[in-house]
Amino acid sequence: MPLQRTVPQDASETSRQVNNILRNLRGEQFRHSRNVQRVPASLPTSLHVNNLPTLPINLIYPTAEDGRRNAAAAPSGHDSTRHGRVAGPDPPRSWTTLSSSPKVREVDLSDINSHTWRKHALDLVFSPGNASTPGEFPTLALLSLHVILMECSGYELAEIRPYIPPHLRRALMRHSAINCPLSQIELNAICGEEGHADGELVVVGPHATLRSDHFRRIHSSRESECAAEESTWESLATQGSEPSALFSLTLLSTPLTFALSDLPPTITCLALINIPKPVSLQRLPLYCPLVSLLDLSYNSWLISASGEKLLQDYPWTKLRYLKVLGLRGCHVTSTLLSQVNRGRWDDVDVIH
């Protein structure tokens, strides 16, 4: 039998055949393992990444912030109002990012009686780092208290006040200060004899104002209660928890009807926002030395030249614990910033 001559194969063709054999073996092994596990033959859709964008979404669809930045950097003869869009439909929602979400519209500061302006004005005092903050969606307990507030009169609210925990009364006072300011009777009913709710007092005008003897009456009532009780070890053991002190005071669009000397020295947060008449704050460090947050925003008497001089000549070094200073709506200069931060290890966070 004559011998047949074998034709030598190319090396590339040999390697291609080996790759095909290995691929078929891997496919058979994969299908066999899935049959043993009794799982569907098709792969889950989450493993298919062909429909995801290959470029960052901000490069394909510019955001509103990018549009404003390009408009500011564009020359005067260039049409900056034209939006940078590409042909085709809008991107799916799954492609959008947080940076491309629509921005919240700017606060209209012209209407000081709107809840939007009150929320913006109280934003610094109600910040997350300063006690509890009312969220975007009220809790069930807060909604229940709001219904009780709408249905009950001030006198009826005073009767059920002992059954409402102090922290819920504080949350109700904060929520009402933004959405529906409390009247004088309702504020007195929520605060009670202590004069505050869980160490905080928020007064929003023109719906409510503090009496000139508000803090003096609270101080005298506490002294009378302490004098009536016997100062013995047995009475101190059965006395119960001591009433909480006032730590935060906020006055919004209401006149200052009391002297600063009446303020308790335990106050650490003091906000005097949109006060109609000028207030002498020179001796504030003597009466409230522990103030760490001072908000003097939107006071018209601080915008004038005399108000700027008052801020620059103020003894900021005496407020040793000051960390946050609110001067929104005021003219803040570099000289004022140097005066506020003089002699401090950590700079004061000036919000303007």
Summarize this, please?
The chain has 352 residues and is α/β, with parallel strands linked by helices. It is built from 13 helices and six strands.
Percent of residues in β-strands: 5-15%
Nearest-angstrom radius of gyration?
Answer: 34 Å
Mean pLDDT across every amino acid position? 78
Distance from first to last alpha carbon: 104 Å
Helix content: 25-40%
Largest sheet: 6 strands, parallel
Q: Residue ranges: pLDDT <50 for 5 or more in a row?
A: 75-83, 97-107, 236-240
Counting DSSP H or I runs of 4 or more residues, the number of helices is 13
Shape: elongated
Verbal overview:
The chain has 352 residues and is α/β, with parallel strands linked by helices. It contains 13 helices and 6 strands. The chain has helices spanning 11-37, 57-60, 64-73, 115-121, 140-151, 154-160, 166-179, 184-191, 214-228, 233-238, 284-287, 305-312, 334-340, and strands at residues 200-204, 248-252, 269-273, 293-295, 324-326, 349-351. A 6-stranded parallel sheet has the order 1-2-3-4-5-6.
Write the layout of secondary structure elements.
Blueprint: H1 11-37, H2 57-60, H3 64-73, H4 115-121, H5 140-151, H6 154-160, H7 166-179, H8 184-191, E1 200-204, H9 214-228, H10 233-238, E2 248-252, E3 269-273, H11 284-287, E4 293-295, H12 305-312, E5 324-326, H13 334-340, E6 349-351
Keywords:
352 residues; 37% helix; six-stranded parallel β-sheet; 7% strand
